[in-house]
Amino acid sequence: MLMLASSDGSKVIMPDGPDDSDALAPFRAPSGRPWSGGGREDLAAALRRLMELTVTSTPAPGAFADAAATVEALSRALESSVPEESDQPQPRFSEQTVRSEEVATLTSAMPFDMIVGSCNPLAPPIEIWFEPPLAKGKVIFTPTYEGAPGCVHGAALAAAFDIILTAANVLSDAAGPTVVLTIRYLKPTRIGVESLFESEVTELTPRRTHSIGRLIQNGIVTVEAVGEFVNLDRSKINALHRSNGGS
User: Fold this and answer.
1) Are 69 and 61 in contact (CB under 8 A)?
2) 82-100, pLDDT tens digit by residue?
3) Long-range CB contacts (< 8 A, 24+ apart) of 179-182?
4) Rounded distance, CA 219 to CA 245, Å?
5) Which structural domains are found in the chain, ordered by start?
6) Which of 1, 35, 53, 219 pairs as cysteine with 57 (C-beta 3.0–4.6 A)?
């Protein structure tokens, strides 16, 4: 049982987990899904909802302070289970190789990605699928991603296109780090309206992949993107997290 203190000194009692002697048991990965974390996806989804309510709700005075105290206590409870930094791969990094004939596994191979990762509360997350030669995606951006009133922030859209173009590159078995990403904002992209993404590779050389993409709302193209990417060996991409300060 976990008892948390709110800002007014009252107690907030969290329900017992499956085994009170092992409070972190619900967060451990079930067999066959090492990236899921055994409830990690549910926690990420709950945090997404909390982030949306943080910017949209108007509760009674003191409610936000109480919520902050509760969230901080939960954070402290989980903090002790963060692995120490080392040269060994951490569970949040997937080293699964995604071949072009297995592209349907792209999202599963990136569970902690900030755009498509089901285990990352920052991710909307965007759903991606493939209709060769196109990679496609869809999402409804919530007010969490708002820039101008009622519109999706340009930075959120740029980040989305980085992964949407990468998805097209995977189809050509030529994914790698981004070199240049150019975004053209044609019309406002609305919050709360389904956004459809399409991308495809336009040129493939031994060292570079060039891709284009577009975002469509209600049949109208609101954003276009052009990207250039390095063709980097997959083993080198997988090992990036082992580098120390880029060395």
Assistant:
1) no
2) 877 766 656 555 445 545 4
3) 179/208, 179/228, 179/229, 179/230, 180/226, 180/227, 180/228, 181/225, 181/226, 181/227, 181/228, 182/225, 182/226, 182/227
4) 44
5) 2-79 (no CATH), 100-238 (3.10.129.10)
6) 53
